[in-house]
Write a structure and sequence with these properties.
The structure holds two protein chains of two kinds. Chain A is an all-alpha fold. In chain B, 53% of the residues lie in helices and 14% in strands. Classes of the chains: A mainly alpha, B alpha/beta. The A-B interface holds A 736-738, 741-742, 744-745, 748-749, 751-752, 755-756, 758-759, 762-763 and B 212, 215-216, 219-220, 222-223, 226-227, 229-230, 233-234, 236-237, 240-241, 244. Chain A: Pfam families: eIF-3c_N, EIF3CL_C, PCI.
Chain lengths: 793, 328
């Protein structure tokens, strides 16, 4: 359409002022309208009533006229002034513009003015000659118009094409290619109206050129040369490439060329964002996905295309011939990049918006693409490439809970589900896939990083599906704990995630101690959020400058992969409670008592500091309240604090097998409460019947028996079991508080002595050894001493 | 008023105080002191011949953080002036302080007693132990700094050498002054009469057999002090190690310098200029010894208290045993 218009217009039109730039003789659908609105000048004398539109446009044209005059005499300050007025006037006529579209003459002026300014700017000599005011005005105006023109980018580009066209039609059929390459390289400092490369979209080839592979490739190179340059319009370039692809398809140049072009389209799509932090716009992203899909279609359909990074440009074979195509490029890299872009999009979307959900729907497409690539590469790629694509696949799998497999393993409800579900559940279990992929990587991978990631994902997946022993064994076998600190941050984040998942898994299985150990590192730092890559902590700027913050932001895990932090903390606190409360009861008087969990103690202290104790609200308060109940051996209250409506919906229901976890928890609470009770109150009993205990804690007699036996064996409880009457007889040999104190004092005095002797050593030099010789051992054995002496009495 | 007739006499360095003073101190503690909080006040009296007689006292008001601009000196002067108006002895002769399980040997006490003794030579500090008193035996002790310690405090030389030279140990930091409480005859008569009349045996606390809580508390505090002591010793240890290390370095440096100089001399070159060695090797700051000494003193008092307490308790236990045997 525009092309038609351009040929119709006069070539000299650009010289003339805006008023008569388009002559009514031009024909065409668009032109009738324009002609009407633009040719008002001769007619307005006859008309009495002018429309608002005419009035506005007249104002604009007048202003434009003055600007053009000022341009001619190089009066920059005048130009600036008028330009500002023009902008204002344009703003006023906004309603009309909205209705009618931006008037052509306006665009023309903007384009001309910018070119003119650029030209002046480049002309160093001329600039020197300018007076101060003018020079200043020039620079401001240049900046202004740059900014201003950004809004009219497409229109100006359009205009310029037209311009160009009319130019180029004059000179006959010249060799287009060479000229544009020239002009491309010097487009910046050339005459403003000479085409910068990106602007020549509609017409690729001169009329009549025979389009063959060589020409297209040449053209492609031309386009690519502009890539990365400052003035290049990236959007236009993408369009250009699309057009080229269309042409090559039209002319049946074969898959080689189109693959080549596709590669470049995708690459320039990635290039679209100048900096790394920005993410793709949705339409770009859609386009990218489509392109990649098409590319994969071609690649999979045509097995005679070889692609590779190591194929040199000149050894490419793009023409249709008997030989297979050879194309330079790496589809794997493209798809990896696509994956990263996807992550970036997810990172930059508000996780609580509908938009996020919409974006997340693309996850399926991304997975599908990765899957297709995987099939393709399995057949064609090197092992290294296969490893890489496997890792991608793993990365998309490991964090998803396989509900179907879970349901199947339970062996029920298969029928009640809909057809589609049925169909899907036919597919491979994710566990099997993970196993297959990971094992391949373990065997074949030679870069450490991929293997590490694969192991971690594998462990995570195991842990997520409650395969605790496999997960633990894999973790121990990999020895990752020892050297993970040398890994790069993303891997460390993955490691942290894995550890947390492992801990939660252990908890579900009732391995409280393991759970506590696994979670200790993450929780004790108080930076769980940061360590898991789920958000930045508020910190002052001294610790982290903007640059670092950007880097850290890029490491964040997308929201749909997050591990629930409250769940994590709750699991940790509950396991700490189950360990710590009996321990505290057992070592009530021990001065050397160390804390098992600092964080748990912190929570307890916070709870104690509360001036008014209401019913618990938050998860932490629940745990603290439960701990207090447990301290008294009151398991029923403890139970009701840990498992209730609030906690269920906050925490426990998040587990896939919530009911089982709750049962386990009740059991643990009963057992640990029993232990706590015995520790705390053993001193007031002479003997206690096990049946009573079993009744009190709702445990079976054998369990009570085993718990008490264990305590006796570990010398935690000074008692013996009386078999016939089924009672526990207390020995009452626990040291009293005062005795404990005295023992501690003795110990401290020992330490003091030792220190004192050291001072003496220093003074006496050689003599010192004499004093040390026989006493060292005595103080060192103190650990066993305390309990030992009393239990033997 | 009965109380006005009671006098406190002082024999040589010893002194006695009237029951009015004692009662006032006790009352002050009952009203304001709680737990480990400490109450303080001013003692008034006069020196008669070789005795210091304490005839009156008044408390320092408890002031909180909010009224920081409260002027204590002003208050004291005001108080004493008012007392003079009503013709009561108004000479400042010391101060009193309550104590918590016998913990009073502290830097603060040392400093303030020093300034008292420095200004008014005969000043004493009365230490009142409410807990022991509650157990049935009035515990009131008077202390003065020994002249040796006064010397040291005056020179502010708390280094190890200074203390060694002055031969001040933890035992002879404070001297205890014997107290004689003397009531006027009228009061004695009144007391006798009251004892006759009182029906409730008021002395049963004295025979209380429970000992553990008191001992526990004492042990706990003793332990804390021992910890402090340990820390101090470790500090001192590091210090002495550092010093010796530096000494060595210094020595080496001097030797090297000498060697070089002799070499230069043999070559006929001028010797290297003398540099300030003390500047190059700054001796490490020695840890102050005074605190350690005070801790030692405090430990000593604790030990005394515990010893006293246990021996009393043992006695009580024997008595109880005998009683049991007698009954059965």
């Amino acid at each position: 359409m525009s092309r038609f218009f351009a040929t119709g217009s006069d070539s000299e039109s650009e010289e003339s002022s805006s008023a008569d730039e388009i002559t009514p003789k031009a024909t065409g659908t668009t032109l009738t309208k324009q002609a009407l609105l633009l040719s008002d000048e001769e007619e307005d004398t006859k008309r009495l009533v002018r429309s608002a539109k005419d009035k506005r446009f007249e104002e604009l044209t007048n202003l434009i006229k003055t600007i053009r005059n000022a341009m001619k005499i190089r009066d920059m300050s005048k130009c600036l002034e008028e330009f500002e007025q023009l902008c204002r006037a344009f703003l006023k006529s906004k309603t009309i513009v909205d209705k009618e579209g931006v008037p052509q003459f306006y665009i023309r002026l903007l384009a001309d003015l910018e070119d003119y300014l650029n030209q002046l700017w480049e002309d160093k000599e001329g600039k020197k000659k300018m007076n101060k005011n003018n020079a200043k005005a020039l620079s401001t105006l240049r900046q202004k118009i740059r900014k201003y023109n950004r809004d009219f980018e497409s229109e100006i580009a359009n205009y310029k094409e037209v311009d160009e066209e009319s130019d180029s039609d004059d000179d006959d059929d010249e060799d287009w290619g060479s000229e544009t390459v020239d002009s491309g390289s010097e487009s910046e400092d050339n005459e403003g109206n000479s085409a910068s490369l990106a602007l020549e979209k509609p017409k690729m080839f001169a009329k009549g050129t025979e389009i063959n592979t060589a020409v297209v490739v040449k053209k492609l190179h031309e386009i690519l040369q502009a890539r990365g340059k400052k003035g290049t319009d990236r959007a236009a370039q993408i369009d250009l490439l699309h057009a080229l692809a269309a042409i090559s398809n039209e002319n049946n140049l074969g898959e080689g060329v189109s693959v080549k072009i596709k590669f470049n389209i995708i690459a320039s799509l990635y290039d679209y964002n100048p900096n790394l932090a920005a993410f793709m716009k949705p339409e770009m992203w859609k386009k990218c996905l489509e392109c990649i899909n098409e590319l994969l279609d071609i690649l999979i359909d045509n097995s005679n295309i070889f692609i590779g990074e190591n194929i040199a440009e000149d050894s490419e074979n793009l023409a249709i011939s008997d030989q297979p195509f050879r194309v330079r490029g790496c589809v794997l890299t493209l798809i990896e990049r696509m994956d990263e872009e996807f992550v970036k999009i997810m990172q930059n979307t508000d996780p609580h918006s509908q938009e996020y959900v919409d974006n997340l729907k693309d996850e399926g497409r991304v997975c599908a693409i990765v899957d297709r690539l995987l099939q393709y590469l399995e057949a064609k790629g090197t092992t290294e490439e296969v490893c890489r694509v496997f890792l991608r696949r793993i990365m998309h799998t490991y964090y998803k809970f396989d509900y179907k497999a879970h349901r199947r393993s339970l062996g029920l409800q298969g029928e009640s589900k809909s057809e589609q579900d049925q169909e899907e559940s036919e597919g491979e279990d994710s566990a099997v896939i993970m196993d297959r992929l990971c094992k391949f990587i373990y065997a074949k991978d030679r870069t450490d990083r991929i293997r590490t990631c694969a192991i971690l994902c594998h462990i995570y997946h195991h842990a997520l599906h409650s395969r605790w022993y496999q997960a633990r064994d894999l973790m121990l076998m990999s020895h990752l704990q020892d050297n993970i600190q040398h890994a790069d941050p993303p891997v460390q984040i993955l490691y942290n995630r894995t550890m947390v998942q492992l801990g939660i898994c252990a908890f579900r299985q009732g391995m409280i101690k393991d759970a506590h150990n696994a979670l200790l590192d993450i929780q004790s730092s108080g930076r769980a959020k940061e360590l898991l890559g789920q958000g930045l902590l508020m910190r002052n700027m001294q610790e982290r400058n903007a640059e670092q913050e950007k880097i850290e932001k890029r490491r964040q895990v997308p929201f749909h992969m997050h591990i629930n932090l409250e769940l994590l903390e709750c699991v940790y606190l509950v396991s700490a409670m189950l360990l710590e409360i009996p321990y505290m009861a057992a070592h009530e008087f021990d001065a050397r008592r160390r804390m098992i969990s600092k964080q748990f103690h912190h929570q307890l202290r916070v709870g104690e500091r509360q001036p008014l104790l209401g019913p618990p609200e938050s998860m932490r308060e629940h745990v603290v309240a439960a701990s207090k109940a447990m301290k008294m051996g009151d398991w029923r209250t403890c139970h009701s604090f840990i498992i209730n409506e609030k906690m269920n919906c906050k925490v426990w229901d998040l587990f896939p097998e919530a009911q089982r976890v709750r049962e386990m928890l009740v059991r643990k609470i009963q057992e640990e409460s029993l232990r706590t009770y015995l520790f705390t109150y053993s001193s007031v009993y002479d003997s206690i019947s096990m049946e009573t205990l079993a009744d009190m804690f709702q445990l079976e007699l054998p369990t009570v028996h085993s718990i008490i036996s264990k305590m006796i064996i570990n010398e935690e409880l000074m008692a013996s079991l009386d078999q016939p009457t089924q009672t526990v007889v207390m020995h009452r040999t626990e040291p009293t508080c005062l005795q404990n104190m005295a023992l501690q004092l003795a110990e401290k005095l020992g330490g003091l002595m030792e220190n004192n002797e050291r001072v003496f050593d220093l003074k006496q030099g050689v003599y010192g050894g004499y004093f040390n010789r026989d006493q060292k051992g005595g103080y060192q054995q103190k650990q066993g001493y305390q309990r030992g002496t009393f239990s033997r009495i | 008023m009965l109380a006005q007739h009671s006098t406190v006499s002082l024999v040589r360095p010893c002194f006695l105080s009237g029951s009015q003073v004692v009662l006032k101190i006790i009352k002050h503690y009952q009203e304001e002191g709680q737990g480990s909080e400490v109450v303080q006040g001013v003692l008034l009296g006069l020196v008669v011949e070789d005795r210091l007689e304490i005839t009156n006292c008044f408390p320092f008001p408890q002031h909180t953080e909010e009224d920081a601009d409260f002027d204590e000196v002003q208050y004291q002067m005001e108080m004493m002036r008012s007392l003079r108006h009503v013709n009561i002895d108004h000479l400042h002769v010391g101060w009193y302080q309550s104590t918590f399980y016998g913990s009073f040997v502290s830097r603060a006490l040392l400093d303030s007693q020093f300034s008292y003794q420095h200004a008014i030579e005969e000043s004493v500090v009365l230490i009142y132990d409410p807990i022991k008193t509650a157990q049935g035996s009035l515990s009131l002790k008077a202390y003065r700094l020994t002249p040796k310690l006064m010397e040291i405090c005056k020179e502010k030389d708390f280094s190890a050498e200074g203390l060694k030279k002055a031969a001040v140990g933890y035992e002879n930091m404070f001297e205890e002054v014997p107290i004689v409480i003397k009531n006027s005859h009228l009061i004695s008569v009144l007391l006798w009469e009251l004892e006759e009349k009182s029906t409730v045996p008021s002395k049963h606390e004295l025979l209380s057999l429970s000992s553990s809580s008191h001992l526990e508390k004492s042990l706990q505090m003793l332990m804390d002090r021992v910890d402090d002591m340990s820390q101090d010793i470790v500090k001192f240890n590091t210090f002495s190690r550092n010093t010796s290390k530096q000494q060595q370095q210094k020595h080496q440096y001097i030797q090297r310098r000498q060697q070089e100089n002799t070499q230069r001399q043999s070559r006929g070159e001028p010797p290297l200029p003398e540099e300030d060695i003390s500047k190059m090797f700054k001796p490490p700051q020695p840890p102050p010894r005074m605190d350690t000494l005070l801790i030692a003193g405090q430990i000593n008092t604790y030990c005394q208290t515990v010893k006293e307490f246990t021996s009393q308790n043992l006695g009580k236990l024997f008595m109880a045993e005998a009683l049991q045997g007698h009954n059965s």
